[in-house]
Amino acid sequence: MSTIQVDFQLPQRFELEFQGQDGNRQRPVMIHRALFGSIERFFAVLLEHYAGAMPPWLAPVTVVGIPITDEHVPYLREVAAELKKHGIRVDVDASDDRMQKKIRNAQKAKIPFMLIAGNDDVEAGAVSFRYRNGEAEERRAGGRGRRGDRGRGGASHSGLTTVRSGAGSAESAPLRFERWRLRIC
């Protein structure tokens, strides 16, 4: 996809002139083809700047759900559906790969956040959290996690935090969002 552009500035900068039919010196108008438009150039610069690890607000997929076994996929799909209701771009990796390979694939794809669910998480109505740089959110008594490494994106990486459900089941645990914080209440 390319555009044709009329440029009045470059001939002036390079002091380009030609002799017209009337014998007078005239300034030309440059017509050139731009292979990439301004939007495409902008995204190319962003991709280069972030080395593909876009900040969460700009990443095509913000969160990927990774089940420990196939029996945890339905629970993660419920969590993903709730996240999608709130505008979060989320996928669930239900492939036949081992969990470690799913994590590695998500890190290679530079997905900002990973939600991992196992038996303990399903029972508690919670998810385990992991940043794309590999740092995991630790759970403390009362279920509160600590903030992990903020990574390249600064404060935008610190946003998604999980809190265990006091209710004990996913059905009775509504999700609440506060400026990139996910709370399972």
Give an overview in words:
Keywords: Aminoacyl-tRNA synthetase, ATP-binding, Cytoplasm, Ligase, Nucleotide-binding, Protein biosynthesis, Zinc. Residues 63-138 form the Anticodon-binding domain. Residues 137-152 have a biased composition (Basic and acidic residues). The protein is of the alpha/beta class and 185 residues long. It has helices spanning 9-13, 38-50, 73-85, 99-108, 119-124, and strands spanning 3-7, 18-19, 25-26, 30-34, 63-67, 90-92, 113-117, 128-131, 175-178, 181-184. The protein folds into 2 domains: 3-50, no CATH class; 63-184, Rossmann fold, CATH 3.40.50. Helices cover 25% and strands 21% of the residues. The radius of gyration is 25 Å and the shape is rod-shaped. The two termini are 48 Å apart.
Brief descriptors of the model:
two-stranded antiparallel ribbon; ATP-binding; ligase; Rossmann fold; rod-shaped; 2 domains; 185 residues; 21% strand; aminoacyl-trna synthetase; protein biosynthesis; 4-stranded mixed β-sheet; alpha/beta; cytoplasm; 5 helices
